Each structure stands twice: as C-alpha cells, then as structure tokens.
C-alpha cells in the first residue's frame, strides 16, 4: 500500500474538481444536518413522552397526604389501603379496561427524575410529593370518559387524567415536522448521491488517461478505484464535519442562546449536549460511508478491467 | 507464449466478424509483425491478447493461461507480465519522463527502493539517460515513444505488444525505435507488433502474420510486407 501515491492522487482529484467537490460537501452537510435534526427531534419527543405515554391512556391519581386541603375527595388525607383495593377492583371490573399498572410514589419519582434529568425541576420535588396512581390501558383509547365518570370525585381519588389530552397536539406537531424532515431528507440524500456519482464520473473521466495506463500496466481495480472512492469519502467527511457543527450550533442557538427555548419553556426537558454528541459519530459514519458507496457504484461500470 | 485456437469475435451490433476462425501460435522469444489493412482485425487480435475483449468462440492462451477462464480479478496480474506500446505514446503530460516510467511501478505497488533503482536503468537502456526530468511535451516524438517503451519494459515483461509504434514517426526515427524493440527482443522478450510500415517489415525480415477481413491469410517466417495499400 503506497499511502503517498493515494494521497497525492486524491489531492489532485479534489483540486481539479473544486466546484463539484464543494457541491458534494454542501449537499452532504445539509442532508446529514437534516438527518441528525430529525433524529434528535424524535429523541426529544420520546423524552417528553416519559415512561408511561405509549403504554397507557388514563392515569388515576390517588390522594396524597398533602391533597387533604385542596381536593374535596381527599378530605381524609392520603388514600387508605382499603380504598386502593376497591378502586383497583372497580377499575378491573370496567369492560373497557385492558390492563392496570400500579405506580408507587417511589417509582413515580424515579420516572419523573429520569424524564427531567436535564432540568432544574428534577431537584425541586421529593418522592413523597408524587401521588401513587393507577395507570390504565384501555381497549379503546377513546373511551377515556367512561373511566373519568366512574372515578372522578370518588373518595381516595385525587384526579383522573387523560394522559393524551395534554401533550397530544404538541406531539402531533413534532411528529409531523419530523416526518416532513424525513421526506426532505430523502430528497436531499438522493440529490447528494446523484451529485457524488456525477462528481466521481467527471473525476474518472478527467483522469481516463491515468486510469487507462493503470489498467494497461496491470494495476488492480483496488488501486485504480481507491483514489476516487477516497476522494468522495473525504468530501463526505468534510460535509459531515460541517453537519456536526450545524447540529451543535443548532442546539446552542435554539435552546441555550438565541431562541432560548429552555428559558421560555422550563416545563419541557430539552435534549442535553450528551444526546447531540451521541448522534455525531453516526453522522460522521454516514458522511464517509455514503459517498464511498456512491463512488463505488459510480465506478463499477466506468472502470472495469 | 500466445496460442489462438479457432478464435472468432464479432462486436455487438456489427454484422461482419472482426476475427474469423484464427488459429496460430507464437513461441517465446519470437518477433512477430502483424500486418493488414485498417479493419482487418489487427487491433482486435491485440485486444484479445490483453484481454480487453473476450472471444465469442475459440480459445486464447497467453503465457500458458486460458484467458476465457481467467477471472476478472486475476487479469491485472496477467497484464503485469505484458508491456504495451501505442502509436499515440499515451504518456502523462504533467509528469516528468522518470515519473511517467515510475508511475507504472507505483500503481502495481512496487516498493520505492525498487523504483528508484530500476527507472534509471531502463531509461538508460532506451537511450534517454540524462532526460529523466524533462516533460513529455519537451521531447521529440521518437523520444516520447522511447519513454513509452521504457514504461512498458520497466517491469521486465515476458511479452511486449506494440500497436503501430512507429505510426506517428518519420522513417529515420522509426528505425531507431525498431532497433530498440529488436534489442528488447534479444533479451528474451517476445514482441508482437502491428504495423503499416512496409519498409520496416521488409528490412527486419521477421515472422509476418497477415490478417484480411478478420481471416488469417498469411503466416510467413522471415517475411515481407507483401501487399500494396
């Protein structure tokens, strides 16, 4: 393996095709930034959904001792074991109910802590402030009212909450945006692939004299194709680097500075730097692999022995 | 060294075959002229030896290998034992003489030490000592062809294929190139040369193979060019 030979060939190739190289870098950067953003948006939705969102539709919060003064049905303080037992029995008796989970204060606190680990909210609450609850999975998710009317205001029940009502619209919006991002991403990736294939072809054509001689003197296809593949991979790597900077910058300007979403919406736990950084190796990997594969495909027909 | 057994070849979308039922054998160390008018099948003959094309029917053996059964990834290794020279020299204009010759060794992964040693040797052999750092554009046609021959010969091939190597050169320069090819032949390298140059063929008195419309019409040792065009 003659590294110096490859490096000089790659340098020559990239310089000769400077405009096309830039086109590749920019299109790779944009499509990968979009891919990373969509991925992060997905993660954001997941983290906002918390532990229970996809599993249950209704939460029956039981009385906590601090609810005594504020909620009439909790006038007697915390829920008793007897009350808990009858509530559970009655929930199970409802035909619309598929499954019931019990969550203790301690577990509720753990899940809460997990969801808001990046937020100051996590430290402002203690386990005994979290109400015990029954998480109810319905056979038909729209039948919330049946459960609500049966348990709302009952002794020992603090409130009945339709899990979906609060966040559904926001998630619908976020999911819609993510889906739109994926569609745009598909187009961008196609454009990037076509650009790379074309760039490699032009590059191979402009060096057909060299490659022709290489074939004649018995250079292996590896030797002939490697400079072109490395060229594409290098341009892709630069593009992926730009995409990484865009993702990091995007998080900084949307959440910490600029838009300052964290200050404006303190209730939402935004993705931390760690989540963004975890995405970067994937972005870099795709940034190198995709152009390399595209180049290989482009050369398969062009530079056969 | 080279054996053709009933070789036929028709290019796609052409009615007339480029080669029709050609059988012949070329022994190690021979010097062979391949003559015939344009379109007679000379280039196809050479391309089959280089395995740039495959036969439709019949077998081609080069260096003891059946080319039809040689898998694609082994072709480069086969070509390393072959040298090729063309009418249009095919040098890289942005590399010096020495770099052009070294290129042929670099791309087959030869160590730098070997390259540094063999390139001056072969340039000396072709009579270009002292012109290592010139660019091809600064050289005469004959000198450029010598660079091409140096490049073809630097890996000490068993077989040298020359496709009209004197086609772009004046008669006097051509004689020089022929002397060089003859010298290479005397080192034991088999030389197969396609040519239109009547004087050269008549002077050299080597084996002459003539193709006409894809057929082998003459195979004569110590032959002459033999037809008017």
TrEMBL record, chain A:
Describe the location of the ABC3 transporter permease C-terminal domain by residue ranges: 183-303
Instruction: Report which superkingdom the organism of origin falls in.
Output: Bacteria
Tell me the keywords, alphabetical order.
Answer: Cell cycle, Cell division, Cell membrane, Membrane, Transmembrane, Transmembrane helix
UniProt domain FtsX extracellular: residue ranges: 56-160
The membrane topology term of the UniProt record is: Multi-pass membrane protein
Q: Where are the transmembrane segments?
A: 21-41, 180-200, 232-255, 275-299
Q: Give the residue range of the signal peptide.
A: none
Q: What is its main location?
A: membrane
UniProt-annotated location(s): Cell membrane
Its annotated function is as follows: Part of the ABC transporter FtsEX involved in cellular division.
The subunit structure is:
Forms a membrane-associated complex with FtsE.
Recorded family membership: Belongs to the ABC-4 integral membrane protein family. FtsX subfamily.
Record-linked PANTHER family: CELL DIVISION PROTEIN FTSX
Protein's name according to its UniProt entry: Cell division protein FtsX
The organism is Actinacidiphila epipremni
TrEMBL record, chain B:
SMART domains hit by this protein: AAA
Swiss-Prot/TrEMBL keywords: ATP-binding, Cell cycle, Cell division, Cell membrane, Membrane, Nucleotide-binding
Gene Ontology terms for molecular function:
ATP binding
Q: Report the main location listed first in the record.
A: membrane
Asked if Aminoacyl-tRNA synthetase is a keyword of the record, the answer is no
Q: How does it sit in the membrane?
A: Peripheral membrane protein
Give a single Pfam family match. Answer: ABC_tran
Query: Among the record's GO biological process terms, what is one?
Result: cell division
User: Domain named ABC transporter: which ranges?
Assistant: 2-228
Specify whether Ribosomal protein is a keyword of the entry. Answer: no
Cellular compartment(s): Cell membrane
Spell out the family assignment given in the record's similarity comment: Belongs to the ABC transporter superfamily.
Subunit details: Homodimer. Forms a membrane-associated complex with FtsX.
* Functional summary from the UniProt entry: Part of the ABC transporter FtsEX involved in cellular division.
What protein name applies here? Cell division ATP-binding protein FtsE
Which source organism does the UniProt entry give? Actinacidiphila epipremni
- Source species taxonomy: Bacteria, Bacillati, Actinomycetota, Actinomycetes, Kitasatosporales
Gene symbol here is ftsE
């Amino acid at each position: 393996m003659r590294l110096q030979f490859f490096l000089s060939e790659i340098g020559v190739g990239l310089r000769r095709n400077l405009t096309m190289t830039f086109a590749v870098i920019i299109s790779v950067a944009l499509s990968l930034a979009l891919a990373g953003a969509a991925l992060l948006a997905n993660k954001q939705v997941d983290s906002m959904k918390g532990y229970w969102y996809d599993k249950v539709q209704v939460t029956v919060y039981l009385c906590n001792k601090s609810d005594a003064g504020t909620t009439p049905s909790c006038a007697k303080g915390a829920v008793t074991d007897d009350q808990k037992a009858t509530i559970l029995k009655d929930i199970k008796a409802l035909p619309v109910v598929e499954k019931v989970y019990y969550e203790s204060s301690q577990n509720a606190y753990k899940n809460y802590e997990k969801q808001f680990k990046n937020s100051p909210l996590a430290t402002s609450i203690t386990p005994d402030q979290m109400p015990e609850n029954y998480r109810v999975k319905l056979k038909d998710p729209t039948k919330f009212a049946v459960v609500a009317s049966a348990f709302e205001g009952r002794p020992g029940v603090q409130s009945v909450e339709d899990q979906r009502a609060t966040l559904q619209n926001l998630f619908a919006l976020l999911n819609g945006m993510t889906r739109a991002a994926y569609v745009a991403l598909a187009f961008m990736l196609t454009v990037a692939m076509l650009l790379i294939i074309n760039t490699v072809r032009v590059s191979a054509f402009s060096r057909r004299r060299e490659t022709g001689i290489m074939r004649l003197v018995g250079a292996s296809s590896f030797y002939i194709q490697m400079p072109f593949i490395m060229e594409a991979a290098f341009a892709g790597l630069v593009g992926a680097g730009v995409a990484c900077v865009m993702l990091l910058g995007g998080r900084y300007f949307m959440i910490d500075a600029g838009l300052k979403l964290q200050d404006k919406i303190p209730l939402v736990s935004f993705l931390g730097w760690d989540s963004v950084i975890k995405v970067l190796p994937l972005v870099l990997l795709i940034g190198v692999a995709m152009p390399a594969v595209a180049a290989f495909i482009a050369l398969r027909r062009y530079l056969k022995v | 060294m080279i054996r053709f057994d009933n070789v036929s070849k028709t290019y796609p979308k052409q009615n007339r075959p480029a080669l029709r039922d050609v059988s012949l054998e070329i022994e190690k160390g021979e010097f062979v002229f391949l003559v015939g008018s344009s379109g007679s099948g000379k280039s196809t003959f050479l391309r089959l030896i280089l395995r740039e094309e495959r036969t439709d029917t019949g077998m081609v053996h080069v260096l003891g290998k059946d080319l039809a059964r040689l898998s694609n990834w082994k072709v480069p290794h086969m070509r390393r034992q072959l040298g090729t020279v063309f009418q249009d020299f095919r040098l890289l204009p942005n590399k010096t003489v020495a770099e052009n010759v070294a290129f042929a060794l670099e791309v087959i992964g030869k160590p730098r030490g070997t390259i540094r040693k063999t390139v001056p040797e072969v340039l000396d052999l072709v009579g270009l000592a002292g012109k290592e750092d010139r660019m091809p554009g600064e050289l005469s046609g004959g000198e450029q062809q010598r660079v091409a021959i140096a490049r073809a010969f630097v890996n000490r091939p068993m077989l040298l294929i020359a496709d009209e190597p004197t086609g772009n050169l004046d008669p006097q320069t051509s004689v020089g190139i022929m002397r060089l090819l003859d010298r290479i032949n005397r080192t034991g390298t088999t030389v197969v040369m396609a040519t239109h140059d009547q004087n050269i063929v008549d002077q050299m008195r080597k084996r002459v193979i003539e193709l006409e419309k894809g057929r082998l019409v003459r195979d004569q040792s110590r032959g002459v060019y033999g037809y008017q065009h």
